Amino acid sequence: MPIIEVENLSKTYPVAIKEAGFKATLTHFFRRQYRYIKAVQDVSFNIESGEVVGFLGPNGAGKTTTLKMLTGLVHPSSGTVRVAGYRPFRRQTPFLEKMSLVMGQKQQLLWDLPALDSLRINAAVYKISDRAFNERLGELTEMLSLQGKLEQPVRKLSLGERMKAELLAALLHQPQVLFLDEPTLGLDVNAQAAVREFLRTYNQRYQATILLTSHYMADITALCDRVLIIHQGQLMYDGKLDELLERFSPYSEVRVEFAHTLPREKLSDYAEIESIEGREVRFLVRREELTATVSRILAQTEVLDLSIGDSPIEETIGRLFSAGAV
Question: Which of 105, 233, 240, 316 is most enclosed, with most CB atoms within 10 A?
Answer without folding.
Answer: 233
